[in-house]
Amino acid sequence: MRKWLLPPVALLLLLSACDDGASEPAPEPDKQPEVEEQPETEEQAVEQKGVPEDFGERYFDQNNFIHAYPDALDSQFLSESIGLYMEYLVMMEDEEKFAEQYDNLMSEFVVEEGENFFINWLIFEDATVNALIDDIRIAAALREADELFNRPEYSETADRIIETISRIQTNNDYTVDYYDWEVEYPAQRVTLSYLIADVPEDMNADRLLENVEADAVFFPEYFDVAEEMYVKNEVVHMIDQLLIAINRERIGLSSDVFEEWLKTEWEEEGRLFGRYDRETQEARVTYESLAMYFYMNEYLLAIGEDEAAEEVKARATEVTEANDNGETHFFDFIHYHLMMEDETK
Predict the structure, then answer these.
(1) DSSP three-state, residue 189
(2) DSSP of 27-75, one letter per residue?
(3) What global pTM score does this model have?
(4) Residues 110-160: tens digit of each pLDDT
(5) Rounded to an integer, what distance in angstroms lies between the CA atom of residue 165 and that of residue 305?
(6) What is the pLDDT of residues 4-48, one digit of tens each?
(7) Which of 37, 69, 264, 268 is the most exposed place for a label (fewest CB within 10 A)?
(8) Which helix (H) or strand (E) holds 78?
């Protein structure tokens, strides 16, 4: 039986279209005017949600491909960016913009090699590998968009992405981080933060999370499938650590030591930094990250720390407002909006 490891991270919830409440209140029963009943028509529809026309405009080129940095047309065009933006478009129920990004996905990101259907992690450059977490995110967004917009081709594309991963992106019976189709060789590791909640259930992503050491503050970053051992880095990235904790929480595993450290750090500092020393637990950088605050907010909500989660959102807004140079990476930009405009958070 194939040992599948793919992402556990909390599926972003679809928001249904909501009534704007703009209609006049009904008269009191005894004051109802006698009028002829009018049949309901589709014209009397609820106002649809959508993305403002100028949303993130500095990140898009003339064909609405997303570059990594604002006003930097020479910065990279990543599958990570299109996947996250697709998530956001589903949340905002923007059918037109989603269709536009789907066309971009199919025209430039898709690489077909025989029966294989790959998503290139980087376009307009010489790249021949995919990225597991981005593929899973894109497939999940496509399925949600099909359900929302009734576009079966979206789910059909998602099926092709997942089927290819399932069939060839394995090493030593583990699903791994990427596959290089030029040399026909899979990666030799599984990054634990990739095991997000969007992964299909039959991929069995849970066992590496269950077996990971959780009695130290920080988790190992990845699992070496050749040596069958967990590997730790000297400097830890907080996005990875938060994602691993979220992934574990999703399958009912608490991370008490990490949780205690995180809450203490927040209470004492009122902020979290991007990287920490594994041994000393001291910050190794002075920057904060909007994407990191997205995952911190998500983790705190998952463990019932709603008040602290709201504080994190407030701090993220402070960081955004203080960023005068406008050099925010799209990864941080879109995560901030996913957090702030998701009514469930």
Answers:
(1) strand
(2) PPGGG----------TTSPPPPP---TTTTGGGB-TT-PBPSSTT-TTS
(3) 0.85
(4) 999 999 999 999 999 999 999 999 999 999 999 999 999 999 999 999 999
(5) 36
(6) 444 433 333 333 333 333 333 333 333 333 334 444 444 444 456
(7) 37
(8) strand 77-78
- Checking if the pLDDT of 325 tops 50, the result is yes
Tokens 């599926």 belong to 11
Q: Could you tell me which residues are beta bridge partners of residue 148? A: none
> Counting beta carbons within 10 angstroms of the beta carbon of residue 304, is it exposed (0 to 12), middle (13 to 18) or buried (19 or more)?
exposed
Pairing of β 170-171 and β 110-113 = unpaired
- Measure CA of the first residue to CA of the last residue in the chain; give whole Å: 38
Residue 236 CB burial class (10 angstroms; 0-12, 13-18, ≥19): buried
CA distance 225 to 116: 23
Q: Please, which residues have CB within 8 angstroms of residue 284's CB and are 6 or more apart in sequence?
A: 235, 273, 275, 276, 277
Give the whole-angstrom CA distance, residue 339 versus residue 333: 10
For the segment 254-280, the average pLDDT, to the nearest whole number, is 97
Longest dimension (CA), the chain: 80
**Distance (Å, whole) CA 237 – CA 158:** 30
pLDDT of residue 103 exceeding 90: yes
Residue carrying the six token digits 């830890």: 236
Query: Backbone phi, then psi, for 271, in 5-degree steps?
Result: -165, 165
CB 178 within 8 A of CB 186: yes
Measured in whole angstroms, the distance separating CA 15 from the mean position of its chain's CA atoms is 16
Say how many residues make up the chain. Answer: 345
Residue 172 vs residues 2, 207, 223: alpha-carbon distances, Å: 9, 15, 12
The answer to whether the beta carbons of residues 104 and 81 sit under 8 Å apart is no
Residue 105, token pair as written in the block? 């996905």
Residue 232 tokens, joined: 């730790």
